[in-house]
Specification:
Layout (H helix, E strand, L loop, with lengths): L6 E6 L2 H10 L13 E5 L5 E6 H7 L13 E5 L3 H13 L4 E7 L4 E7 L5 E7 L6
Parallel strand pairs: 1-3, 4-7
Antiparallel strand pairs: 2-3, 5-6, 6-7
Length: 134
């Protein structure tokens, strides 16, 4: 027996806001997820994104406190093209989400940008630059 990577779990301070954010990025949460204490979206490749409310986490870990600060992890979403990185970034920022790093051409051969979800988790948007094969 060996453990296998199956899911990424995030704690949402506002489930409806988090579900709406990730739906804008194309994740398919079941209808009504925004009103639940736990929600799951299946990702390509068989992984899942799990969202739990702070109250849910406290129900099994009463001393838990939300972390302060941020920047210790991020989710990275591959876009189909450098232009899509720019358009998704602009769409999210235009919808009121906070941009953390405007789109730029990274030295490792990718168009890259970072937006923050409603809880301040980094969501990296990237696509290979033409001719780099990344």
């Amino acid at each position: 027996m060996s453990p296998r990577f199956d899911a990424i779990g995030l704690v949402a301070s506002d489930m409806a806001a988090s579900v709406a954010f990730y739906r804008r990025l194309g994740l398919a949460f079941p209808e009504g997820s925004e009103n639940q204490p736990h929600a799951e979206a299946h990702l390509p490749g068989g992984l899942r994104l799990l969202l739990d409310t702070e109250e849910t986490v406290r129900s099994f870990h009463p001393d838990w406190q939300p972390p302060s600060g941020g920047g210790r992890h991020s989710l990275a979403l591959r876009c189909d093209s450098p232009a899509e990185v720019d358009s998704v970034y602009e769409e999210l920022v235009g919808a009121g989400y906070r941009g953390d790093l405007k789109p730029w051409d990274a030295v490792w051969g990718q168009r890259y940008a970072v937006v923050l979800d409603p809880d301040g988790n980094g969501v990296d948007l990237f696509a290979p630059l033409p001719g780099t094969g990344q």
